[in-house]
Design a protein that fits this description.
heterodimer, A: mainly beta, 4-stranded antiparallel beta sheet, 0% helix, globular, B: mainly beta, 50% strand
């Protein structure tokens, strides 16, 4: 079974600085998808960024980017120019391949990010 | 606007009582999911359904039951067999996009269940 590990239960960053959240996963498959979700205090789940395993290029979405290391099974999230609104719980998630149909996500336990003004 | 509606927002259960959490979506998605969230545990899968009239157990299905009689609805019943039901419950749905299965799951706003 696939597992996702987030080794940092809590992180903090100064406003306008850069922070990196770590995520590693375990799978025997070669084709899969990886996601980062943000959960603010409202508890809504908001997609931050996604990565297809078959793509070598790292995904970016404005201030958010990932460092995808397929061989190392690592998928870290970098937040640049941190803002107060970035304070939230961040979850890393894994999903099986394109040919597996509508499959569930496997989540890590999350990293709580605090942003200091 | 399309989305997922979970109700109620807060629910209280008495000992020995079954309760049902509602999840309705108007996104025309085939697949729906139920996750449980506990502090420090992330989201864990309870049940999921890939198509109407079909569903599969997730990692923590014991003490829960579901039905999928309509595409838009996927209610979750927390039975008296679930001894520790206090948690935050999230419903989600998904559908493949033009580029395959990389589409994110859409989530409802959740139901907070507590024991009286």
């Amino acid at each position: 079974a696939q597992t996702v590990t987030q080794s940092q239960p809590e992180m903090s960053v100064q406003e306008a600085e850069t922070v990196t959240l770590s995520c590693t996963y375990d799978t025997s498959e070669s084709d899969y998808y990886l996601f980062w979700y943000k959960q603010p205090p409202s508890r809504q789940m908001i997609l931050v960024i996604r990565q297809e395993a078959y793509k070598q290029q790292n995904a970016t979405e404005n201030r958010f980017s990932v460092n995808f290391q397929k061989a190392a099974k690592s998928f870290s999230l970098k937040i640049s120019d941190s803002q107060l609104g970035d304070a939230a719980m961040y979850f890393c998630a894994y999903r099986r391949s394109r040919n597996s149909g509508n499959t569930p996500l496997v989540f890590g336990k999350g990293t709580r990010l605090s942003v200091i003004a | 606007d399309g989305g997922i509606t979970q109700s109620p927002k807060y629910l209280f259960r008495k000992e020995g009582q079954n309760v049902t959490l509602s999840c309705e979506q108007n996104l025309n998605h085939d697949a729906m999911y139920w996750y449980r969230q506990d502090p420090g545990q992330g989201l864990r899968l309870i049940y999921y359904s890939q198509i109407v009239n079909d569903f599969q157990k997730g990692d923590i299905a014991e003490g829960y039951s579901v039905s999928r009689e309509k595409k838009e609805s996927f209610p979750l019943t927390v039975t008296s067999a679930q001894k520790n039901p206090t948690a935050f419950y999230l419903c989600a749905s998904s559908q493949p996009g033009p580029k395959g299965w990389n589409q994110p799951q859409h989530f409802g706003d959740g139901t907070r269940l507590s024991i009286l």
